[in-house]
Amino acid sequence: MADDALFDLPTPAGADLDVTTDLHLTGGLRVAVDHTFGTAERIPLDDTSWVDHVHGWLAGDQALMDMLMAEAEWEQRSRWMYTREVTEPRLTAEYPVIAQAPHPVLHYLAAALTAHYGRSFTHLWMNWYRDHNDGTGWHADRPADRQAEAVIPVLSLGASRRFLIRPEVGGKSRTILTHGGDLVVMGGRTQRDYRHSVPQQKPAAGPRLSLNFSIDPPRRSRRDATRHDNGSGPREQARADLSG
Ligand SMILES: O=C(O)CCC(=O)C(=O)O
Ligand SMILES: [Mn+2]
User: Fold this and answer.
1) At the topology level of CATH, where does 5-238 sit?
2) With 90 as the cut, is the pLDDT of residue 2 above it?
């Protein structure tokens, strides 16, 4: 995109990580995170909003992806757009309480994020983009967009895709190219003052999963919240376009 600033450092740390180090914590899955966050690139959006792009934070992303695609409870969700029901262009699986997820590796990931960012990530929702026709339209994450500030880590597995972010009031978008194993963390007032998306695209792309962590209270799953929000989803209601 001509108007995008590209933030991409091709320095995958994941290749250097030893996937046997944390086996006792990952449920035997051969993955490892970089506990030092040594490849983190802080992208200031303005004085109060930022994004961290942690290149190659996770080693073994394919093993994690294979396990989650086989074992998580994926569902096809739909939502109301004005007068018609629209099928979301992706699959979703959700753990409103990560501690109850039956996969130790998810606890391991949440604990590593909590240790670094100093807040207790308790809620996980995952997207499965089956190919380039799947995506996520412009939105802010709820309820984080109603909090003074928030930290939302998003872990990418599988195919590389473009993660866009632009001011809530409109304007140029920035592109972060996410590779399998990369972590993108939105912080500060990003959920209030910016919108983000993973656009559907023409160039072919294989499957990608994203793992989105938050500190939402567990009493309502995002699916329940969708209903309470009068047919428009908790994340989706904040979307500025209809692309999904
Ligand atoms: O897939 C991604 O990288 C981001 C997805 C997202 O923003 C969301 O599901 O709220
Ligand atoms: Mn989001």
Assistant:
1) Jelly Rolls (2.60.120)
2) no
CB 205 within 8 A of CB 159: yes
Which protein residues are within 6 Å of ligand 1, measured from CB? Answer: 127, 136, 141, 154, 163, 196, 198, 210, 212, 235
Q: Mean per-residue pLDDT for 174-201?
A: 98
Residue-wise pLDDT tens digits, 49-59 = 999 999 999 99
Instruction: Answer whether residue 9 shows pLDDT above 60.
Output: no
List the chain domain ranges: 5-238
Give nearest CA residue, ligand 1 atom 10.
Answer: 141
Q: How far is the CA of 46 from the centre of ligand 1 (A)?
A: 21
Q: How far is the CA of 211 from the centre of ligand 1 (A)?
A: 8
CA–CA distance, 85 with 82 (Å, rounded to integer):
8
Q: Which atom of ligand 1 is nearest to the CA of 197?
A: 7
Closest Cα partner for 213 from 135, 155, 147?
155
